[in-house]
Amino acid sequence: MKKIYTRPASLKEAHFHYCPGCGHGIINRLIAEVIDEMGLRGKAICVAPAGCGMLVYNYFDIDTLESAHGRGAAVATGIKRVRPDNLVFSYQGDGDLAAIGTAEGFHAANRGELITVIFVNNGVYGMTGGQMAPTTLKEQITTTTPSGRNPVSAGHPVRVCEVFSVLDGTSYLERVAVNSPSGIKKTKKAIAKAFQHQINRTGFSLVEILSPCPTNWKMSPIESFRWIDEVMTKQFPLGVIKEVKC
To answer: What are the structural domain ranges in the chain?
Structure first.
């Protein structure tokens, strides 16, 4: 029989540690597929975050290193500046990029650093117990907002792509989701396009990926997939937010 599905060469033979229904495993595989298909395996360098994605070095069979919490964009910037011919990307969650790492990500984008950020938005702090994140929706229940997020006291959800879109240094910003087959295909294309913008040196690129977190959302995987479509995308609409000519 013809083999139509196999493990990407850029993924190690290791079992993911992610919870059932989590989107991280899907995203990890998509990144590996894109790296293989674009012939970037010998050039790609990943900067791993604090959080659920911190163990990507156990899965990616490419050069990968850990950064301090929130410092992924700063570390990626340093690597890219000394190794300009490499493809350098950070892999960051909403707490990592949009909270403790706000300054690093914002100013890397504003400077037009030639890096790519893969931004996984699941609306909560995943690894540490489901606390409210900058992207937590209004009235969303978390361990630190048991009555729901109140924007009067806790502020409003942060739309990272829209914030970064006004910066002159950004060249490509797209928001996608991995809760459906069609969404997964669009996510893969977005990752490839972001990498191409880096290769073409057009500026800073970022792909925001809406990802399910059934464990901390207290939902089944199927419920969490539906919740992204029915609730989350109302606050975080999908699509290309900004793209300059590549």
So the answer is: 24-243
What is the Cα gyration radius of the chain? 17
Helix, strand or coil, per DSSP, at residue 142: coil
Mean pLDDT of 69-85: 96
Give CA angle at 175 (187, 70), nearest 5°.
100
8-state DSSP, 51: S
Q: Give the mean pLDDT of 13-39.
A: 96
226-235: long-range contacts, CB 8 A cutoff, minimum separation 24: 226/179, 228/177, 228/179, 229/177, 229/179, 229/180, 231/137, 232/123, 232/137, 232/177, 233/177, 235/137, 235/138, 235/157, 235/159
The confidence score (pLDDT) of residue 129 equals 82
Q: What CATH superfamily is the domain 24-243?
A: Thiamin diphosphate (ThDP)-binding fold, Pyr/PP domains (3.40.50.970)
The larger pLDDT score, comparing residue 245 to residue 208, is at 208
Tokens of 164: 């970064």
Q: What is the pTM of this model?
A: 0.96
pLDDT in tens, 139-165: 999 999 999 999 999 999 999 999 999
Look up residue 108 and give its amino acid. Answer: A
Determine the Cα–Cα distance for residues 5 and 182; give it in Å rounded to an integer. 17
